[in-house]
Amino acid sequence: MSASSTVNRAVRILGLITPHDPVAAVLRRELAPRKDLPPGERRAIVRAIASYFRWLGWLDSGLSTQRRMESALELQGRFDSNPAAIKSEALTARAVPDWLAAEMETVPVEWLRQLQRDPVLWIRARRQFADSLPRALGNCEPAALPSGTGSPRPPAAGTAFRYSGDQDLFLNELFQQGQFEIQDLASQLVGHACAPMPGETWWDAFAGEGGKTLHLADLMQNKGLIWASDRSVRRIEVLKKRAARAGVFNYRATPWTGGPKPPTKTRFDGVLVDAPCSGIGTWQRHPHARWTVSPDDVRELAAVQQQALDHVAGSVKPGGRLVYSVCTLSRAETTDVADRFSAGHPEFSPVPVFPNSRSVSPGATHGSAGTSADVAPSASVFIWPHEFNSNGMFIGAWQRQS
């Protein structure tokens, strides 16, 4: 497909996007039925649309959509050739909305530069296939977790691999056999933060389509029990299909709205609250969201997150573990929520996010700059996209006292 054809197709799809018909839905509807488009051509269209939203702050609104698209692709090519060609001042002023600076503890220029790059594709191998899968699939590189200042030091994620091939992995036979899942590295680290043991009972309170539920089951060696709940019945049905493909059977799936009445009276060894959030940490993967999320969304979701933690607290048994994760980086949805929960629930004590980790550098706590000295593992960490080549994530952990 020629460059002009890519631009024309991308411009047509852009014209279909509305607040009620978002980017992901339009792309799925427009591209999925097109069996005549090879995977490379589909990727080119998707990348063109992503580039448009990445560089939206640089584009002249007086130009036609086609000319703006061409300008965005020119900027993307210039940046890909030399990231330093785009000055830090321009990134700060144009890459993200103005309101963000007031909502974050810090806005690292390195993160802004990361937002303008194509995201990495991460996969998670099931434990029994961690050795054979990279060879069979090809183009797999083990996760290299950062050890420098300012980064949490989670345990080695031996089942996480960066995939750099050009296959459509959803059609791959090994995927259909359930040997691996497509899951961002940050989401995989949430599973390692939970650190469930075989035979335990866990609750994935906002399970969505089940990515973290399946990881918990794998870490538990399919032993014990996981309750997986979500407010969306459609997501639960997707979870069931994914679990069947992955050979996961130690779970129960049930609807739950996040209200004060839990779906079961069971007391759990661990509860994961992967709460609904503004998704600021996913802006590299979903660049259009930079221009649709608002400060009002951040405040409303922070209230939902606080309420969710309050509602699940009684379901954690004495000695049990509570993990809070959100793929966002705003202060209101991360450290503020964690601090208020700690203040309002003295029966819970903050504990290391990565219990099997030796130590972290001070910068992992509350997103501060950090030093090279090791300290005790932190009870809250930020996973920064420019350090992990992943989505951004905040994770906090507590243990209920006896």
Write the layout of secondary structure elements.
Layout: H1 3-14, H2 23-31, H3 39-54, H4 65-81, H5 88-94, H6 100-103, H7 109-115, E1 121-125, H8 133-137, E2 140-142, E3 160-163, H9 173-176, E4 180-182, H10 185-194, E5 201-204, H11 211-219, E6 225-230, H12 233-246, E7 251-255, E8 268-274, H13 295-312, E9 316-326, H14 335-344, E10 348-350, E11 380-383, H15 385-388, E12 393-400
Please tell me the total number of domains.
Answer: 2
Structural class: alpha/beta
Distance between the termini: 64 Å
Q: Kindly report the CATH topology of the largest domain.
A: Rossmann fold
CATH architecture of the largest domain: 3-Layer(aba) Sandwich
Q: Low-confidence spans: pLDDT under 50, at least 5 residues?
A: 358-375
Fraction in helix: 25-40%
Number of continuous helical runs: 15
Give your account of this protein's structure.
The chain has 402 residues and is α/β, with parallel strands linked by helices. It folds into two domains: 3-86, no CATH class; 121-400, Vaccinia Virus protein VP39 (Rossmann fold, 3-Layer(aba) Sandwich). It has helices spanning 3-14, 23-31, 39-54, 65-81, 88-94, 100-103, 109-115, 133-137, 173-176, 185-194, 211-219, 233-246, 295-312, 335-344, 385-388, and strands at 121-125, 140-142, 160-163, 180-182, 201-204, 225-230, 251-255, 268-274, 316-326, 348-350, 380-383, 393-400. The strands form two sheets. Strands 5, 6, 7, 8, 9, 10, 11 and 12 form an eight-stranded mixed β-sheet that branches. Helix 13 (295-312) links the parallel strand 8 (268-274) and strand 9. Helix 1 (3-14) packs across helix 4 (65-81) and helix 3 (39-54) crosses helix 4. The longest helix is centred in the last third of the chain and has 18 residues, at 295-312. The relative contact order is 0.12. The model is unreliable at 358-375 (pLDDT under 50).
